[in-house]
Amino acid sequence: MYTPPVSRVGLAKLLRANAHHGTIPRFKRNLLLRDFIPSAGCGAQTMGCAALDFMVFGEAYFQRLFNVIGQVLELQHLPAINMRRKVGGGFVRLLANGEQQHFAEEQIEHVMDYDVEQNIYGVPDYLGGMHALLLNESATLFRRRYFNNGAHAGFVFYTNAPDMTDEDEAKMKSQIEGSKGVGNFRSMFVNIPGGGDKAIQIIPIGDIATKDEFERIKNITRNDVIAAWRMNPALAGVMPENAAGFGDIEKIDRVYTNNEIRPISQLFLQVNNCLRKDRQVNWKEAVLN
User: Fold this and answer.
1) Is residue 107 classed exposed, middle or buried when 0-12, 13-18 and 19+ CB atoms within 10 A define those classes?
2) 66-105 tens-digit pLDDT
3) Which residues contact 22 (CB under 8 A, 6 or more apart)?
4) Could you tell me the residue ranges of all domains in the chain?
5) pTM, whole model, 2 decimals?
6) What is the pLDDT of residue 248?
7) Cα–Cα dist 126/130, whole Å
């Protein structure tokens, strides 16, 4: 079988790396379902699962269920994360314990977003924003570790007091070491008797003054993630930075639906070709015309 160009498991795990990246594909799925009319051939649950697969992986899979005379009665969703194309034709579904479920070509309806480098698997559009996504996650994790470590930790505690006893030094060192957190920073105690004019100095290593840099990284990477998804900030839950806001939300929604959601619905309409006429997948006339 062919290996996907991008790890499906890796793409799935990325959904938990960032707030916007995790919610935007589900929001686009909801926009697609908003104008979907369920039928006996394809229900809302089936289409919702397939639509989310398409947003995340750039492709979706349906299994055609036939009646005794060879007509397609219903489409059943198959998780794209486990689906593979076979070299000799057909498809295979990877199951637990290394088992496989094989399908002939005519049993599967494959909806995919074309990739210019290959035409075997679909590839999502947001891959160009993955580095921004991971940087956003790293900045958040770093900040979490900083606060978990404690604002009092993450420094060199230096003293040059010549009259400090060994007992006092050991007690102070023990207290400082006890303040260590589980994050990136560790504190250090140093005693140099008679070594300077100041008795005690605290030299910060991890400083909360880097707050502005943290916010700048978060804002820049957030914008890159939203751009990679081609999502309007007003629809992505971004707070406006000015009093005017983003404008008329209904117009934004209408334009976004026309330019982004309608083309995706056209791709899914290909499943009509394999269903009986009275069981076709359908969308509201307002969306198609």
Assistant:
1) middle
2) 888 877 888 899 999 999 999 988 999 999 888 999 999 9
3) 15, 16
4) 8-128+250-288
5) 0.75
6) 83
7) 7
